[in-house]
Amino acid sequence: MGLVAAVEGPWAWRGRDIANSECWVCALQPRHIGELEAALAMVENRGIDWNEITASDFPLPGLTDLISQIRNELENDCGLMKLRGLPVRRYSEDQLRMLSNILLAL
After folding, report:
1. Which CA distances in Å does 40 have to 5, 69, 75, 82?
2. Residue 96: which domain range?
3. For residue range 9-48, what is the model confidence (pLDDT) as tens digits?
4. How far is CA 56 from CA 2, 43, 104, in A?
5. What are phi and psi of 11, to 5 degrees?
């Protein structure tokens, strides 16, 4: 059995290496939250189940830059992204599932 090559690059991190880094944290702005809530309302009004949500179900033109930032971090940098600022207590469990799938569908 041979040795495994070391993993290198921005995705090769240890918890202690990024614990104090903010590069993988994104603070949602009120305009982002507003647009997500509009998408949520659209999905709810159309009666789409949370597990059937696709990107074609709603437009999110104001989130283009944010989506690009998240996608870049996930695909080319450390591979994770924490979204801060979504007022989760405002939503039901079903709405949180829908919001999660809206973000995952992007």
Report:
1. 45, 21, 26, 20
2. 22-105
3. 887 888 888 888 888 899 999 999 999 999 899 989 999 8
4. 47, 11, 12
5. -85, -5
